Records
---
Amino acid sequence: MAKSDNKPDINIDPKLDLVLERVVDVPPSKVWKAWTVPEHLMPWFCPKPWQTTECEIDLRPGGKFRTLMRGPAGESFDGTGCYLEVVPERRLTWTSALLPGYRPSAEGLRAMPFTATIILAPEGKGTRYTAIAQHMDEDGCKKHAAMGFTEGWGKALEQLVDYAKAL
Amino acid sequence: MAKSDNKPDINIDPKLDLVLERVVDVPPSKVWKAWTVPEHLMPWFCPKPWQTTECEIDLRPGGKFRTLMRGPAGESFDGTGCYLEVVPERRLTWTSALLPGYRPSAEGLRAMPFTATIILAPEGKGTRYTAIAQHMDEDGCKKHAAMGFTEGWGKALEQLVDYAKAL
């Protein structure tokens, strides 16, 4: 029942959602690999000097997406979410509001729950890359923006592209 | 990517989850119809004297499931959730933690968020019916139990069976 097309069918609400759209010069197949294989996700996923030191991916709706990120001063952020949509090389959706197996996540809800969707579309020899973060309220959206969503996800995408070119 | 089989693959945690299992004498096709078509859901969905006066169903992962329930003293409960798994005549999963389109639900999260799964398996001429409600913490589970999950969902199921026999 997953979507087989790639239409921008998400109702974007500018007060609740953050969007990053870029055209990058690696094909969707390599971007997909970088997002869905732990060994290929960890090298680029955090804007440096943060590092992703652990990653678990069970790539199916209801499956686990976990990353452990570590900062230069010893900070760490261990986040576990649940995949919702998996359309190879086209669309990946997960949420921090649910744990794997779809159970509501107490930890995700205490923080700033969001649902993220990565949409990939071929463009020339590259990819039109759209990342969308949907929040439950304006406060969550503002908090995510203040945490540096655009800069952070943008910088991570640059790291992804550098890494994925060698795939 | 939805499950095509019907294995009880949910990790039930007795401290977090509520389960109702019954064998009923209507086939899975009729139980499915009663759960997935608004005009066939409204007659049985609330234990009487409560009534379901409105129902919206967009039967696909990410689609809307909304019911408006009204009590005898004028109380009302308007709940909107999001379908996660739709396997015709076998399995239906939705959550109150997300709105349609997978956005985290502020209203769902303020209340007692839960994910519900209805599993249907043919048994003789009837159906083995399993309803599971998964909660994020023990408090949510206890609250749902105290609200009368077993009695309420059990009584609604009896109403479903009476109604579905005539389908």
---
Amino acid sequence: MSKSYWIWHPGAFELYHSMLLHNRRTSAKTVTENGVKTRKSAYYPPMWRVDGPPHNAELMKKATIDNEEVIELFSNTDDCAIRVDGKKYPKNTKITLFPGEHTVELMGFKAESFPAFYIKGNVFNTDRTWTTYNNNCQPNRHAGQSELYTDPHDNVEIFKFKYEKMLPVSKKAVNGGVLYDFGREKFGKIIIENAQDGEYLFSLGESYEEALDIDFCQLCVNATVKDGNFTSVPVAFRYIFVPNIDTPLDISLDFEYLPLETRASFECDDDLVNQLWKTCEYTMLLNSREGFFDGIKRDRWVWSGDAYQSYFVNYYLAFDKEIVKRTIRILRGAEPMLKHINTICDYTFYWLCSIWDYYFFTGDKGFVFDIYPDMLEVLRFVEGRLSPDGMFDRKSDDWVFMDWSTFDPAGPMCAEQMVLCKSYKSVSLCASLVGDTVTRERTEKQSDYIKEQINKLYWCEEKGAFIDDYNSGRENVTRHANIFAILFDLTSEDRKKSIVKNVIYNKEITPITTPYFEFYELDAMCSIGDFKYMTDMLSSYWGGMLRLGATTIWEEFDPTKNGIEHYEMYGGKYEKSLCHAWGASPIYLLGKYALGVYPTDVGYSKYEVKPNLMSFKHFKGAVPTPNGTVTVEMNADHVTVLSKIDGGTLVLGEKKYSIEKGKELTVAL
Amino acid sequence: MSKSYWIWHPGAFELYHSMLLHNRRTSAKTVTENGVKTRKSAYYPPMWRVDGPPHNAELMKKATIDNEEVIELFSNTDDCAIRVDGKKYPKNTKITLFPGEHTVELMGFKAESFPAFYIKGNVFNTDRTWTTYNNNCQPNRHAGQSELYTDPHDNVEIFKFKYEKMLPVSKKAVNGGVLYDFGREKFGKIIIENAQDGEYLFSLGESYEEALDIDFCQLCVNATVKDGNFTSVPVAFRYIFVPNIDTPLDISLDFEYLPLETRASFECDDDLVNQLWKTCEYTMLLNSREGFFDGIKRDRWVWSGDAYQSYFVNYYLAFDKEIVKRTIRILRGAEPMLKHINTICDYTFYWLCSIWDYYFFTGDKGFVFDIYPDMLEVLRFVEGRLSPDGMFDRKSDDWVFMDWSTFDPAGPMCAEQMVLCKSYKSVSLCASLVGDTVTRERTEKQSDYIKEQINKLYWCEEKGAFIDDYNSGRENVTRHANIFAILFDLTSEDRKKSIVKNVIYNKEITPITTPYFEFYELDAMCSIGDFKYMTDMLSSYWGGMLRLGATTIWEEFDPTKNGIEHYEMYGGKYEKSLCHAWGASPIYLLGKYALGVYPTDVGYSKYEVKPNLMSFKHFKGAVPTPNGTVTVEMNADHVTVLSKIDGGTLVLGEKKYSIEKGKELTVAL
């Protein structure tokens, strides 16, 4: 028997779970009822259109079998049928296929969610090789499947998280109530047992200050205990404050998480960095769910810009292909595309970039084939909004984000052109992969054209840097475009040197203040061999949070702030996320630049190990690849590499050493 | 208090119920299980893409109130909130609005269906005046509402049919089982009570021959009786045969129907015609449900070409605006439009035509405003498939239907150009109504251009008729295009005369054989004053069915066939529908041409009564209008008109008489 998967119309699973997750956000509101002021949890709708899954599916497979096989259809809907060589059967019927050619068609409908099918078999087992047909208007596409759903008893409508019962690590009476501390940020259902029936308010906090500040807490749960019990919807918190109770309630947590296997590690002589790496890992794991979330408390939404960075962290942490593919589909949504992804132009561009990156890291050609038609639709949408010569143009209903920073707002921004240019390159590479020559040629040409125009229009010789905009006459220089010019290799080596001097090391240019864009800056700095800036940041920025007691990485950190000032953001007293995925970039930076492991050809078929001791005395760590980890150990005396895959080269300065699979390689320094 | 409606994102209700209804089709299949051959009901998927509703909704209203009002949100989902002047409340909260300006926003999510809202109030009562906002990508559209859902306890997810318990009119032992006859075609759930537990097969038939022919019946129900009871899904049938039982089961029917009020009547000296009118009425009512169905047994789907004719019958029967609007939305589906409506080009064109017709009959400007953006999307889709000069073009994936007839299949068909031309006209009139001048001018010009090209390219002077195609050189003449030329007023009076002589009265031109296209032929014949052809058909075609015992009108009737040959169609022994909406056209024809009532200006603001005795000795009947019926009585001596509305003119030959509202007008002949 071959491995069977639950299958569905491509994207249906991701659309369904995306719809659910994007509608789970709540926010606490103060409401006065019958003269009594109280805090109520209120539904908070998504900020962009969220699409439901298609409720119909038709999938088929045509194949010749040499041996008889008996197949039986399982489905999550009764409105379904299986047609074998033109003859229709209901589900749960054993059908014998004799040797020869057969055409098997599956059809189903489910109003409440989406139809899914499962068949055990040798050739006609359900998996990605089945294709759509007929009336879905997306014919000849591969079926959707997930590694999480391979058993006939699986329920594809329930996302397969793992669960673990947890108790608070402490509780104490305070302010006329009880404050529970779960030790660090958690996510899951709060469970009350053996309590007196009635209404209880749970004021939740990532900090204890937030939990105790009932009037301003971001999240709360209004618990109605009946027959002594209550179970909440899943929520994120570290602290729970229950006001107006004398004796502590019997509270526990049904911790809910995606069982991602961390395949990476990093340990060095600096304990703060070791603690940081572990904290980044936990932060990342809490935000890795149906897709990559921005933060586990506030939005719990999937944002393309945030996810784009999470992909890179993931390639250096769990190397989980499934979550990347799910995230890409969640972000894509369904047709018609009428607004940018998350309503942000650059976020659409990152989405396009992410597909080639995914292929380059994983070598998973199948997914590129599957997503390619969706990619073309995105490109079509983008091109419908470009200027006549195909450059980025600022439309009135676009959110031109790039970063929380002040740019010259006059016209089309240089940094946007650069991500657009890179996304054209991604499309052209994917087009080449799937054999779409016409698109490949056209997009490659356009990518080259945009690069040329960027260098022509946005380069300011006087300032030796790229400017935000060439229309305003202000010649405003920010770091963003200049960082991209280096990182995406968009200009000459001479100009890069000029940028390093005139922008990167120029203290008069406004510094990057968000950890979001810091990811790109640190990546660019490391790529030009300046590791000190990064290791200093590990200590000052990330270390600063840890020294304040952070057990997960925050959305933003400003060392000049004090006390609960740290928790303020977007105008809300506690609106800042204290467990934010984009803070986990040290995992990527240390893996790529300290351990120095990175692919030089698709799917790590070739890769280099170029370790840098940086400011460390020694370190040891592992980087995951599709087929096994690469372990690197380094101190001032030697480097040792042990790899489970072929194709590696150890690069030490000018010297190169071939890495043999499974054989430890030690080179003295 | 103003009248409140349940409201939703425009179209959500129709998409939801359309999705359910299009997935309710089943067909009986012979299955051998453990060596025993049996008949099983199998799911039969829709033949086109069926869209689900949007699962999110955001609706708002901004208004100034003079008097305080207390509002409270009802919703079918808990994932919802109401925001009043920026402050959010959960549902079921009483909120006081003080005099002044207020902005009220409603937001909600429902995964299993679609979110709906209800508020009682004076100004902030929920109705069509609320508009979409924010993230749905269809901003500033009016909320959807239905006259069927005006109570806070309504459930918008259950279509509001009426129910009536019915018993079989007879039962008899036959073929080792029992045959039940319900007297005429019915629709609803079959209920078994007090039966022995076990499995039963119900073989259903529109004819008793079908019910008894287990191996070939179109529909069956596999009943599992538990605790003595069973209730089926709703099905259509007149006869039920239960094989292998000795004593009759206690079977009843929960008859399910839309309570449409017939506001028309027709009675004359010809009993067959009287019986026919009543049979047409019943046929029409059985097929009038969420939308207009083609037939109640087989598909129970909504087809645009069929529905287009049902609209006209409806304007002369119940004049129910709601079902027309629902049908139009059901046919439209959701974005993106990737295939023609029902996959048939002409069906898309009829859809476009139907909107202006609806407005012309009803005067309901609001609906045209609401559907107009969807109309433009349809036009955009259509235009993406036209030839470079904007004429109809035959694309490989288009179903060019027009009729079950043999056309010259060489190139773009004349009749298609004609419906396209009419649909451009409809768009231009609607554009004019909503004030979209650019579209009005463009589409009017294109309509004129197509008309001109039709007359230039497709007119054959030699044959004095329009030909199917001008490329093939075959100069094939069929009736279809020539009928449309008259009916849609697409050519000169001289050419019309030529058509009448060379096509209509030319027995060498293949006759129309389907009642579907007969609708247009009879309409055209009557419009040129030839009523004999129509009244002869009433007797021969429709009368032929009645004489064979038909209690509902069939999909097709061929008097040369015998016995169960009548029930064969599409290659199935009983696949013909014996209760088919398109057979009900006599209601329209008798109302429009015998009673002679028709609007001459929008919404019957002006109308004419131009009665024709035809072959009758006398008749009396009523025609509904938006604001009341018009009753007409006629014999050889006189005509009497009684109208409940203003604006009427009685036309008798060259003479015209003003009809005074509420006052009987009798004119001697």
---
Amino acid sequence: MERRSFFQTGLAASLLGVGGGTALPAWLSASPRRLPDGSVRLSSNENPLGISAAARQAIIDGLDLCNRYPGASAAPVIEVLAKKHGVEPANIQLGAGSTEILQMFVQLFGGRIIAADPTFEDVPEYAEPFSIPFDRVPLLPDYSHDIDRMRERAQRTRGTAVAYICNPNNPTATITPCGQIDEWIKSAPDNVYFLIDEAYYEFAENADGYWSALKWVKTNPKVVVVRTFSKIYGMAGLRLGYAIAHEDTIERIGAIASSNSVNHLASVAGLASLHDEEMIPRSFNTNERARRILEATLDELGIERLPSHTNFLMHRITGDLVDYQNRMRERGWLVGRAFPPMLSYNRVSMGLPEDMERFSETLREFRSRSWV
Amino acid sequence: MERRSFFQTGLAASLLGVGGGTALPAWLSASPRRLPDGSVRLSSNENPLGISAAARQAIIDGLDLCNRYPGASAAPVIEVLAKKHGVEPANIQLGAGSTEILQMFVQLFGGRIIAADPTFEDVPEYAEPFSIPFDRVPLLPDYSHDIDRMRERAQRTRGTAVAYICNPNNPTATITPCGQIDEWIKSAPDNVYFLIDEAYYEFAENADGYWSALKWVKTNPKVVVVRTFSKIYGMAGLRLGYAIAHEDTIERIGAIASSNSVNHLASVAGLASLHDEEMIPRSFNTNERARRILEATLDELGIERLPSHTNFLMHRITGDLVDYQNRMRERGWLVGRAFPPMLSYNRVSMGLPEDMERFSETLREFRSRSWV
């Protein structure tokens, strides 16, 4: 390894304070605003700040043990998560992203899944190859889950029913009142399981009527809460998510989990991120600033938008969604994909505030061409 | 991030050439010979050299995109692997280690698994929660797979039969003549699938009668070859393995794969490792030197050992295996675990040659105490 190639990296520049005269703070000058081709990805609900400086350092410190199986580095992550959530290590299962956690529970429960329409696409994709029935219940006009209708479907289910509730919901960014979910959990018969996907929890935790389903896990083995390091901690590329559930449920999921699916560097980066007390407020505040800029532009242009409690939002477009995405791509913005049945809406993830200022200019151009 | 904490890492020392006056080459001075507690792990068939310097640099260069989902970084790994193996990208499926690949195929095929006894333990563990029958066929006296008896079992199976052949076999380190496997594949009826685990391929490829099952995949959709970056490339902690199979089979496995289970840093490190032409010969030669030292000591002490074509070997012990492992642990060596039914044998992975010199001293002490 040559010093020269090392010092060419952004990391070395950041360490040595030679960030090229930008006004951005040091922790940001090294962060990944753009993809290698120069485009800005506003299509995958990623964190534009990148991983924390503490996580970067932990990865560098962790290089020496990349040749060892990663079980030992996962253990302290589980311990710290247990403390953070006021549970025991036996209440936590790690996965290679929260999507692996969702896949495992779809397989473990094995019963009919009752979910919103639209919602996070990975869950129906995991059900399909195992011929697990999947019921889609349209969101209500306020884009919250139709808990009453989902409950009716569960009541009509023979055998196991699994309520998948993504809250805030992806792709709509909207929240479902947690009082309604609590009522259902409280009164649910024995055949109903609850898979509560809180991937965007930290962006929504201050919202009225929103709280975690965590309070159920100590006493109710049928409630599983799913969280991720991909969003607020910016670790989508490293693959770290987890389930919090009753210890009996965690024991059951442990039996079907892949060996060592969480890699060593994800664990050390996750641990460092948990100890970095600035990470959550920094991500939250940056996202709030970015979203307010975008919301103001959409309102200024009279473009209908859904209320957002996450790091993305949906807004109305005119014309064809694929045309819209292609035109955005030509201007260096990756947005969308299609989220049927909401084909007259685009989902856009927040970049940095300055990205959303530039994106606003593109929206104004689109309006001048009647593309939005 | 402070320069001080960075320069305290072994990486900085290695980069700056301040390796403490050791005679070891630079790429080795930064490598992970010991666990944080000072012990040497000879229990998990890991590569004591650590990941390659090129992989370390690729990880550092890859830090900027850790916040992005890793699909884009996996694509070039698939391309290079396809070229390396003379197949198309459509013949490759990546996984979070080869164990995830094995898990996926156990689930995809869903039929009775016919395997050696003993063999790699993850496969029966993946079958069990899905109530997939698992037949164990004892190894022959020369520790090769009993292909004739496995074939008989398959012939008696109604519905799908899956022949799991780990070659070289873990935990015995022995090879099964590939001519016998080819004969079976050639004559197998339609209900028989072959899951050929070549995790240790690179250590065995020069052995008489040993070759890859790769030649089958273009024409036979029922043969799956499984490889890993955990062993010869030293990447056990990063989680990267893959299947090579007919494109129809890869399409089927793609449908049940977890989204994005391979992390961004594993992909960039894997790609760099594939381009590092010194990595395979360096790992192979270091392992050969280490194994010859251990074999000479075992022979000198008259301790029965199995022939090894991998980075580990099994040798006979006297007395209880747990006592043996505990006594080794007290001396800083992690060895074993139990591999029933071979409970009077210990499995030991190779460390560096100098580790095996020191380990030989421990074996001599054990002999003087009649523990071996």
---
Amino acid sequence: MARPKSVLVGEVGPRDGLQIERDFIPTSTKIELIDGLIDAGVKEIEYSSFVSPRAVPQLADAAEVLAGLTRSKPVHLVALVPNAKGAERAVEAGVDELRVFVSSSESHNQKNVNRSVEDSLVGFENVLRIAHQSGTPVSGAIATSFGCPFEGDVPVEQVGRIAKRFADLGMVGVGLGDTTGMATPLLVAERCNHLKTVVPDLPITLHFHNTRGIGLANVMAGLDEGIDRYESSFAGLGGCPFAPGATGNICTEDLVFLLHELGIETGIDLEKLCAVARRVEDVVGRTLPGQVMKAGPRLQLSDMEQVATAVG
Amino acid sequence: MARPKSVLVGEVGPRDGLQIERDFIPTSTKIELIDGLIDAGVKEIEYSSFVSPRAVPQLADAAEVLAGLTRSKPVHLVALVPNAKGAERAVEAGVDELRVFVSSSESHNQKNVNRSVEDSLVGFENVLRIAHQSGTPVSGAIATSFGCPFEGDVPVEQVGRIAKRFADLGMVGVGLGDTTGMATPLLVAERCNHLKTVVPDLPITLHFHNTRGIGLANVMAGLDEGIDRYESSFAGLGGCPFAPGATGNICTEDLVFLLHELGIETGIDLEKLCAVARRVEDVVGRTLPGQVMKAGPRLQLSDMEQVATAVG
């Protein structure tokens, strides 16, 4: 299948990245980062979550952040919602899209949201009712789509059944989350092909983690399947780095660099994006996994006297 | 083109990785690491360099390391040689293969070895004469094959001309070095296709750096061109990380993980390889970029109470 000519890069850093930061990041700083992404040309941002402020204090300012944005360019601002109450708050705040989530595996869904997969799916009906009253679209994400850290391999049909429920509920898209970095290029091809059969009209988004170093190899596999929506986090921040030193989300700047070098359009200004990523490093106060923000653009010439010792 | 069924993974960590370590690593430790690689099933190792001990004190023990190895399994031990004097020492020590190197770009070759590309190529004639007397094969590596940090893009014909000279000199293989991480999937395809035309009988090895995060995406591109030889470094050590925080060589364990998950054989035991990589981290005393050695094998089940916060 031909690779897409353009790709929608969905930035999840402000939610998936910042949510695990221990120290509260000021609302004004979140606004600055998100407005920076918008100015860089990012078209979709999962910008926060309307979870219980007690469960995730870091994202308690979801409504204030949205209200404070300048939005210098057209952008689609998505908020994660765990339940009907979150949906009401998100709609009230005026988000562009709600996103619900469920794991493909029972044990992960139990540990993550303390209920069965079926109970999660039934709960989505209320979210969709609330959203439809205000004309807000809802998309769904399936965590552990490529494997579960408690159960191991997940049958592709299990993922397909949930995606079908999403379509039947009237959702506008399905995201496959690679929660603990278990995706591989062959699994990407298998899962995308299955979904194209089961939910042919539902746009597929791939959300990879770089936990085992092959996040962008999985993107290559997704592109070969014609998939044109990917999610990533600025500077590679966050996304469940479950082992010491392990990384989580794939990095937005590195993804955008790869896409541009493949001749695929994103509408994003890579240098502006790298500036935001470097600012994220300042904000969290530690080195993050992103590479392009450190190495610079491909044709940035060096004035170093010696860049290599012998061959390399 | 069909992807290869098996791949030769050439480990370059003991040379390309260790050479930039400031503190001298004891000869016995080098022997332990290399014997560990051999025991893990690694079939080719660029294990040291016969450069001037004054220029690279870290590799002054190239002969002693070779003499001290147990070699529990069949392995091909390669040494880098910069000139005729190095070739004599390497042949005397009994290495399995000599490797010479030149940059594709004049300015990088000048800065790296202080001579013109043509002078480097002429110098190789003496190396080949010495090697042939002892029946030792010689391969050649071309640094800056995908771009030069001083000159920018490098015309593919420039790389092809050098590869042709390698073939004419009787070398047994050509390696394309991505010295400062300027390779991209499209350049990989272009360069491999050109070389297949210009030197159809010369095996091609791809040596990528992860400087801009897309090293394994470039491997995917190489596999799609049918290339079945790749070089990498244990734990992702070394390889000219020219910007603070930037990485160098792609990581052997992550490469092997990717290949195995693609159904491509390497003959390498990934768990043993990860144990060696973790030992490398101990030896150099800092966290290294490799991911699989930290996250563990794909189906390693977790007993953590909570591995994810919400979706991911």
